[in-house]
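In practice, a research group might receive sequence data for several interacting partners and want a quick structural hypothesis before committing to experiments. The following worked case mirrors that situation: the sequences arrive first, and a predicted assembly follows.
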Amino acid sequence: MRDLAARRLLACHVDDPNGDSPPEVRKALAAVRNSPELNESYEEQVRIDARALAFLKEVEVPDEAVSRLAAQVAAIPARPFNPRDPAIIAVIIGFILLVVVLTWNFLGRPAGFPPDAFEIAEEVALMDDEPFEVVEFPVGDLEDWFVLKGFDGFRVPDFLAGMQAGSAAIVKIENQPVAVVGLRDSGARLVVFNAAAFDIALPDGQWTSAQLDPLHASSVSVERGVCFLIVVRGEAADVERILRAGRR
Amino acid sequence: MVRVHAGQPISARDARGATPLPESFMSHLPKDWRFLRAGWVYALILTGREDAATKMVEGALQGIIRRHDVVSVKRRRRLFFAMLFREGRNLPCVGEGAGEPVCGLRFFHELAEPGRSALSLLYLRLFSVDELADVLGKSEKELPDILAGARGALSGKWPAAV
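A structural hypothesis for the assembly, expressed as tokens:
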């Protein structure tokens, strides 16, 4: 540190015999000690400061003034809502983050696809062939087959009734019977179950598609209390293609 | 009349880590407002009279209370002293025969601004150098010369025997 810079720094410093000096002040003091002229000037400053502080030390604030000020401070009303208050700012930022995270999470889900239907579709997509039996009927003629196997109320939308089934099974998901039909031509699986048992509610006849994972897609619909799921290995467009083929 | 009592430091808080005030000196005022005592001493230097000092501090305090945007104690204190400085820098100097004497503080009172405020606030140890410059509306570079000039003027005012 240059001597003159050190002296300028020390001009803004008041020596305190009871306190520790900051490192830069200690450096400046060391630098000033090297110059007799600057050292003498600093010693004079220390003398002036000591004398001035002695004057200031002797000042006593009158009790009356302190009481009046204390009364005014005590009368300060509770702080009103202030958006610039750091605590308020922290709460606002936290709330915005929460909204962003929830929105991100919500947008990450397939819109309108019931979460329970999503889970059933995932389970059916990963199901192996073991529970399936070979059937050689159109899907619309499987009602009796399922009744004989112990599943009542099997039916399919009219436009799917003509599709050829290759296999069929009754599985239990969350202790509820679910009918699963393997469609021979498309390799997709049609799932039929009671919508109320899984609390799935959708506008009647409306199909909603979603990508289950990178390998599987599904489409769901509810008609008169029965839920239909089509699960296919592929993308959502492949499910749409099956639906369109059935309607033709 | 300025009362005199021995051995009490001035400031409620030392920005450079100097010895803090004893508890008895800081009674009555809540912790966040203890700087009002130092504010009163500073106002006394500015006005030269006790009653005027109390009035000036009360006025600045009311001004601070109205400022709902000032939340932190540090900023409140800086603004408070800046208000005192702005109000007191142009006040006429109270002569020795004009009523209450201010004892040793008379030498401070008679200094010219901004040296008077710079030196007084430096001795009150409430602010770091950059905060002090901010309160006075000066740059940090100007402060050493202002303080050196004020020290010279102060030492020239008091008699050798004081």
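Before designing any experiment, note the following. The interface with chain B takes residues 7-9, 11-14, 16, 18-22, 44-45, 48-49, 51-62, 64-70, 72-73, 76, 79-80, 82, 84-86 of chain A (CB under 8 Å). Strands of chain A lie at 59-60, 133-134, 165-173, 176-183, 189-194, 208-211, 216-223, 226-233.
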